[in-house]
Design brief:
single chain; 453 residues; alpha/beta; Rossmann fold; six-stranded parallel β-sheet; elongated; binds uridine-5'-diphosphate-glucuronic acid
């Protein structure tokens, strides 16, 4: 076997978002990919072609790869490793609410891989794709692989960290067209192999940054922490704008973002950030930093601003409705962002909990995540089968996730269906001037009072 060949035999350990999207994209490019998954129920569904989560375009990609026999699944990690030349480790690294990371899946995957490496007759490269605490590859994965396999990194097998930067909802695009590939290899041979692999995969169009393994791990956490900081920053500015006269945060963000040093992305104010990555990685970085003896005030504030941000929308609802007790509030969107059914740390769900505590009666509608929302909220809320049925007789509607289907809703539709035509646009997708003509339109970062100059 020779991974320098254009098409390689590849294994992926773990079939979460990163693992499965990568596996399908590599299979689509013509590689033969074998995915190992320990959860037998999940494995059974994967073999039947069923995706464990919603990601646009992935069902088709997986079905094509299965039909062409470019993609297979197994429960045995050792089989995947011995059959392949390069393995990508993409197992889950969950953390608790204070940011303590659970590396048990990384540990057990390392043990399984090491056992297979012990028997391997060829040079094999192990690539860590999971997000981990800086230092994990050098201090935990490398010694585990060497001790159990009885072999040496650089001599018998290669080891590298290559963080993943894909976003849920646009994962296939992000895998195929990344801004950069970051590789932190423990040995030169692995670096050379991966450089060739990625040059071929991206047709030499994507810059490759070569750094130390720990720097690669840090780049991942720092990138997510920076994106989170931008969001909290703009939310803080939005909260100030709201106290001023005749200011809209959307104008302010645009005016800032057109400065090339600042840029326009991750400056959408509203409800704050959620999902399984930004909050988790931020907490992990804070916890790790504390452990190392540095107490990071900026990162802590980023998290704090985000925790408080849904309260701004509750405040607007209370200003408009007085008491929320008994009021029917319709929430559009329950996923943490559009184009995903992921509700982990969803700002929408945080908002709903706050509104429920104030006595509001909540109806929610989301194009794909209602089933998952139901598992958390149960009978505490009503689930609408369409936007229109959800809006009927509502005292207030809060746009909490900017799904494309909501962007097409016209102001007259809100006004004709609702009991009180009050729309709070917490993701800032509608034009205030247009919507204010037909209904009471409020939004975080949009000052209430206007003044003629
Ligand atoms: C994030 C990073 O963007 C990816 O680069 C990274 O690979 C991934 O985490 C990961 O670590 O696996 P993701 O969690 O899919 O990706 O979501 P984002 O698109 O970054 O959005 C995160 C949250 O921020 C969402 O709740 C979104 O609504 C919110 N957001 C985003 C804002 O409130 N304002 C913005 O301007 C942008």
């Amino acid at each position: 076997m020779n991974i320098d060949k254009k098409m390689a035999l590849i294994s992926v350990v773990g079939s979460g978002h990163v693992g499965l999207v990568w596996a399908c994209c590599m299979a689509d490019k013509g590689h033969e990919v074998i995915v190992s998954e320990r959860d037998l129920e999940k494995l059974k569904r994967l073999n039947q072609g069923a995706l464990p989560f919603y990601e646009p375009g992935l069902a088709q990609l997986m079905s094509d790869a299965l039909t062409k026999a470019k993609l297979t699944f197994t429960s045995r990690t050792s089989e995947a490793i011995t059959k392949s030349e390069i393995s990508f480790v993409a197992v889950g690294t969950p953390s608790d609410h204070v940011g303590r990371i659970d590396l048990s899946q990384i540990k057990s995957a390392s043990i399984e891989i090491a056992k297979a490496l012990g028997k391997a007759e060829f040079y094999h490269v192990v690539v860590v794709r999971s997000s981990v605490t800086p230092g994990t590859t050098v201090n935990l994965i490398k010694p585990t692989l060497e001790r159990i396999s009885g072999k040496r990194v650089g001599r018998n097998f290669g080891l590298a960290v290559q963080p993943e930067f894909l976003r849920e909802g646009s994962a296939i695009h992000d895998v195929l067209h990344p801004d950069r590939v970051v590789i932190g290899a423990c040995d030169t041979k692995a670096m050379n192999k991966l450089r060739k692999f990625y040059h071929a995969f991206h047709e030499s169009k994507v810059p490759i940054l070569e750094v130390s393994p720990t720097a690669a791990e840090m780049i991942k956490l720092a990138s997510n922490a920076f994106l989170a900081t931008r969001i909290s920053f703009i939310n803080e500015i939005a909260n100030i704008c709201q106290q001023l006269q005749d200011v809209d945060i959307v104008d302010v963000a645009k005016g800032m973002g057109l400065d090339k040093r600042i840029g326009l992305t991750y400056l959408n104010a509203g409800l704050g950030f959620g999902g399984s990555c930004l909050p988790k990685d931020l907490r992990l970085l804070i916890t790790e930093s504390n452990r190392l003896g540095y107490f990071p005030p900026l990162l802590k504030s980023t998290l704090r601003v985000n925790e408080l941000q849904p309260l701004q929308t509750v405040r607007i609802a209370k200003q408009e409705l007085g008491t929320l007790a008994g009021k029917k509030i319709t929430i559009l969107g329950s996923s943490f962002k559009p184009n995903t059914d992921d509700i982990r740390e969803s700002p929408s769900l945080k908002l709903i909990e706050l509104l429920l505590r104030s006595g509001a009666k909540i109806t929610i509608y989301d194009p794909v995540s209602l089933e998952k929302a139901n598992r958390i909220l149960g009978k505490k809320v009503v689930y609408a089968s369409s936007v229109r049925s959800g809006l009927r007789d509502a005292d207030c509607c809060i746009l909490a996730t900017e799904w494309p289907e909501f962007k097409g809703l016209r102001p007259k539709e809100f006004a004709s269906l609702m009991r009180t035509p009050l729309l709070i646009d917490a993701r800032r997708i509608y034009s205030p001037d247009k919507y204010m003509r037909y209904l009471r339109y409020r939004a975080p970062g949009l000052s209430e009072r206007t003044q003629n100059c």
